User: What shape does this take?
Amino acid sequence: MTSLSRKDWLLLVLLTLCWGINWPIMKIGVQFFPPIAFRSLCMLGSIPILWLAVRSQGISLKIPRGDLGTIFKLTIPNVVMWNVCIIVGVKMLSSGRAAILGYTMPIWAVLCGLIFFRDNITRAGWCGIALALSGALLLLSSEFVNIAGQPLGSILALIAAASWGFGTVLMKRTRLGIASIALTFWMILLGALCLAVISALLEYDAWRMPDLRELLAIAYNAVLVFGFGQVVWFSLARSLPPIASSLSVMLIPVLGVFSGMWVLQETPHWQDYAAMLLILSAMSTVLLKPRSKVIT
Assistant: This one.
């Protein structure tokens, strides 16, 4: 296991904080603003930062011949479907609940590995799937029972997590002749353009200039979530100990719940706390323990 320097640990803590407290910030951004347009503006705003990060490392942005189609194929689940479904889900749900459902992603990644690539799943993995499903069903039942509930928001958040999980599995099995940070640049750019087209088709009548709060939310996402966050994550990805990356991912929905309570005065119900415990337990079974070998 590779150890991290103090600087690396500091960057990882900052990354976890930036992504965790972004859930209520996204809620503020989309409360009265078209959600897909909001996400597209965030991603487009991060492009100059990502470009500077790539160029500062002396990395080429040239796409090898034949790789463009593969990059677009990776962009659809990892960027387009994830961002469209989760941001619409955030608009419908409390930010904390959206965070809990969105971070069922590792469980979906295990299931996608089984279904599409015939991976082996350990007993702990099956236990994790059962725990995550229980937590998701608990939140779904709460939305259906509540007369003002938004079950569609929960379903969209789960679809977002499943698409991200599938995209993660697909990414690990794809070989490209391009650096990771350059791949991130192109995926974010292609994804932003796709979201802009989707927004034009579905939200054009609601387009307007963002107000100050919405502009600040867009700037936070562009600079810290996509710009700083993506660059730091990919720079640490190769040296990050598995336990560090796992705990970072697991802390993000917890921060989402409690930052929503602090920033938006959201009041989580017992179902939220129970689901968070179930899903964190589920994530620990697939993130904190070694997985079985992949069968190819």
The radius of gyration is 19 Å.
